[in-house]
Fold this sequence. Notes:
The structure is a single chain. The chain is mainly α. It contains 11 helices and 4 strands; from the N terminus they run H-H-H-E-E-E-H-H-H-H-H-H-H-H-E. Strands 1-2 form a two-stranded antiparallel sheet. A two-stranded parallel ribbon has the order 3-4. A hairpin with a 3-residue loop joins strand 1 (66-69) and strand 2. The chain is elongated, with a radius of gyration of 19 Å.
Amino acid sequence: MDLDPSTLNRALPLRDQIYHKIRNLIVVGQLKPGEVINEVAIAEALGVSRTPVREAVKRISDEGLVKILAQTGTYVAPISRADLEEAYVIRRALEMESARRAAAKFTAAASELLEDNMAAHRLAISRGRYATAIQLDDVFHRTIAEICGLPMIWRAVDISKAQMDRGRYLAIPRPGYGEQTIEQHEAIFDALCGKRLVTDMGGKGHGTSSRDVVPQHARSRRRPSRLKPREQPACKEWGFVSA
């Protein structure tokens, strides 16, 4: 595990920093399903007391990424189809609303932010930097939430999509996966630039709408949930379960 104590800022709350470290290790697969979370070992590696580690692990368990079993121990949770489906529904709903609201506030400065992001995303894909590409995908959608003036939308998405992210890291590298994501981002960007997103939940848009583009993009991220273990060898290693 990558637990470098020099990366901790002792002037900031330790529990928050440790939370992000452990959570990231689970999401990217460095900590695999069923693996023991040893709070004492983590505290020693980071040079901190056990208290902030325990608080961080409890917070991660509240998100369903860790199972705390009394008298047994703490383990990384498996990836379940039910969790993936729930995350997809939440993300789809929130990102549709985020894009709808962002369309009304889309400016030249906002356009440049997304264009720069897409350029960096293309470069990452062309160089085979798939983990970086996933991070840039997140930045794209976080930026849209910030444009619409409701950054907490992205916070809610980020918490709920952790299981989807585990599936995304499981699926890469996969031919065409990154290119498809970029194409979908371009479609969302074009819709934002053209102010063609639906302006109210019951209204009708012209051309491309958030009801068309955003759900398609969300579905493409969910695809690992459709794989059966025999179709994806890594599924077994990652503790992929059907429920």
